[in-house]
Design a protein that fits this description.
The chain has about 280 residues and is an all-alpha fold. Helices cover about 75% and strands about 0% of the residues.
Length: about 280
Amino acid sequence: MRADTVAYGVCATAAFLSAAITLMVFFFMAALGLPVVRDGQLLQVLLGPWSPDHGSYGIRPMILGTLYIAALALLIAIPVSLGCAAFITVTAPRGLARMLHGLIQFMTGIPTVIYGFVGIFLLVPFVRESSGQGAGLAILTAGIMLSVLVAPTMILFFADGLARVPASYCLAVTAMGGTPVQRLVYVMLPQAWRSILAGLALGFGRAMGDTMIALMLAGNAVARPDSLLDAARTLTAHIALIIAADFDSLEFRTLFICGLTLYSATTLAVLAMRSLAAKGIKAL
């Protein structure tokens, strides 16, 4: 049997298993969350407040907290990641670029709980003293530290996309008297947009799915947040914190609605990125 045939079979099997496991997870959550839909309580769970003492198990505050923290993290991480990727691939000396690239790769392997501890001892006091209100456990704190978590992954995707731009394109810009910034803006970024979209999708998914940073730094308040300095609870932190003794209770079933909401949000983000990529390919 030829080596390429074996390699193709291994890759095809791995792809099939990955897709099958993903679908199995989805159907598992859907099956356990189905009683909520069947009883006509889905909208109440999605849009209502969380108040178990009053028989209300709505997850709207957690949905808003998740979106606010993830959006803030991306707003901070995107310009930082693009800037770092551009510096590594365009302006930095080769030795420095190699060292920074290795450092960023190392950062992607740091456990999330380490970022959480750093945030508790450094970022929380800073936010508390700077704002003059609250305990420093807020959306702003979690969003800043979450941006530090997702930025290395996005930097690697962005830098890889920029590095794949054909050298002939860059040499042509240089021959015409273009500056490194012009080469980046007018040639490299338009050519690397597919990798940039992939990095954005992965960064969004990781920001939505992180548990420890939100659990340790966001304050875990179940009320609807009104500002960046308010405490909030994310869906992932909510799943980690809620312990229901009765597995047939609505409180327990809502955990799977939380999982389905995260699953759906991530899936929609990936589909949106792929749609943009497909439109870009057609335009080319």
